[in-house]
Amino acid sequence: MMGRSHLIIGTTVSLSVLQLAGMPVTAPAVTVALIGSLLPDIDEPNSLLVSKALPNSLIRLLQTILLPVAVFVYFYVQAKPWNLLLAILIAMVSFLPSRSLRKVLMFAIGLGLVFYGHAFAPWNLIAGSLLMLCTTLTHRGLTHTLYGTAVWTGLLYSTTHLQGPEIWVAGGTAYVMHLLADSLTNRGIRPLPPLKWRIRINLMSTGTKQGAVVENVCIVLAFIVAWIAFSPLFL
């Protein structure tokens, strides 16, 4: 399913669940719902979430900067022959396609969180480790499982439960909605690997006309749920 559809469906349904459960729909809850609706696709560098967080303009800027950095390392770093090897490595990275370069950036950000982020928040160590792990995963792998759901919801719960349940409930529900939406596709998901059991309803293929129809129907159903949840506020 397309990222736009995941965003609309996951966020709409999760906020509706909060309203129906009598929980406050707060700005932090909306934020984690938006993130949670796209987060399972963090294992795909060209997904909506990753491409918005690391846009093409940033990738082009990085490619522009890396070549001068490689030249600087070669001429000014006094550690021969390692300076040559490092300069070649940096230059090679600058010529990577945007998809691969996003993975490099994700790994670097995760590494920074592991080594320096814990000084600001202890859970940055976990977040950084998971971010680095995601760069090694295949699409619809570990992040599209109940394990990924548990880790994301658990992180939210451990860091926000004292503020109330709405944040972790919204984030966890949005994440689950993403998995349910992907289970409608011909590829489906494997929720409990290494078990081969797969949830695959096979109603659509992403990017096709039939897929667009199914996605639009799901969006309409999500809005109907939202109407049921929020209409009493306006009546």
UniProtKB/TrEMBL annotation:
Keyword Membrane included in the entry's annotation: yes
Keyword tags: Hydrolase, Membrane, Transmembrane, Transmembrane helix
Keyword Signal belongs to the record: no
Alphabetized InterPro entries for the sequence: YdjM-like
Membrane-spanning ranges: 57-77, 84-101, 107-133, 213-234
Any single Pfam family the record assigns to this protein: YdjM
Domain of life according to the entry: Bacteria
GO MF annotation list: hydrolase activity
Record protein name field: Metal-dependent hydrolase
Organism name: Paenibacillus taichungensis
